[in-house]
Amino acid sequence: MKGLYLSNRFYWVFSSIISLFFMGYGIRLCFEIALFILTLLMVLFIIDLVLLFLPRFQIKAQREIPELLNLGEVNPIKIRLTSTYPFKLMVQIIDEIPFQFQDRNFELSTILGAHETASFDYELAPFERGEYHFGFLNLFIHSPLELVKRRVQTGEPQIGKVFPSVSQMKKYEILALARISTLDGVKKIRRIGHNYEFDQIKNYVIGDDTRSINWKATGKRNQLMVNQYQDERSQAIYVYIDKSRSMEMRFNNMRYLDYAVNSALVMLNIALKKHDRAGLVTFSNKVGASIKADRSKIQLKRILEQLYREKPSDKEANYDLMMRITRKMLNGRSLILLYTNFESIHSLERQLPYLKRLNKMHMIVVIFFEDQEIEDFSHSEITDEVSIYQRILAGKYVSNKRKMQNILAKHRIQTILTTPDNLSIDSLNKYLELKARGLI
Fold it and tell me: Element (H or E) spanning 16, and its range?
């Protein structure tokens, strides 16, 4: 009977009986009414107790979680309830969700009919990669009498693994590979240069390269026709992720590093779909992952598993070490997408010599973060003298980010300064643009 709990209704009725007994000292009728209600309460209590605890009546619950939980995305969790009770039950569900969510008041309530099976959904959005341990499902049930509650612990502890967002990867894959994008964000870039892999002959439109005009087809159709070429394939595309302490900053409860991990998975998947070779390097004060560019069928799985295991570091990034691993791994000219975050112009200037040398050997795109919260604060309303100084400092911080971008552009280094929310979109557009312009 350790699962036995008394309901609020029981306490309210019992409190009323005690009050009537006190009143019975002066009014005999109140005493007799109290005695009758007490007897009735005990009878109903025993009936309710027997109904809820009879062994042949049971209620079971099962939790269903996705095989892979997506980082930073809403993930559906399903609970399936099955009742063999011959009457309606009021059910309170308390799921022992992982401690990472820090939710101490998680609760679902429902009504389950006689011999009914029902499913209920709720959603969780994890902000860190790794293992998430789910405990038991605790059910508090009571009959229509609502005098007794029974606690049933059911289900089995489960482990959910939070991987970089596969759902985001699939969404951008559809957009990037579609001939016409119907959603905002991903742009189709018209090719400026061309290579020698012929695709098709099409009608000339303003902006097409006149060198591609097919004069034979033009004469036959009596209108301008041009040769269209496919993008060059099997190019090496590397994503470099800085795991140093500068990537520990958070936006909407998620670290910059995890935004970079999600975006890296999107970019490398698109590169593989475009028949390029995808590779990954992560570094801080030491090298983490080092996956050589390849286009094999299991390459994306390797990248996904490695990104799942990447942990942030509280050390500063060692760009000299990054240069050494680059010379060792990259044989030919490659496209490198470097996800990092410069906290100040001084920190950029310390790493600038390495970036300039890297840009001579390869095509590098430096992707760093714009703090949207500081940007919004710099345009907020001034209310007092303190807010004036705060706005000046916020404006200077925003201005320094723009200066960093200009410094990199001055040295012919491609850059993307973006917010964490737009990281994947802006990175993907840059890759498609470079690909379309024939720069890689």
Answer: helix 8-23
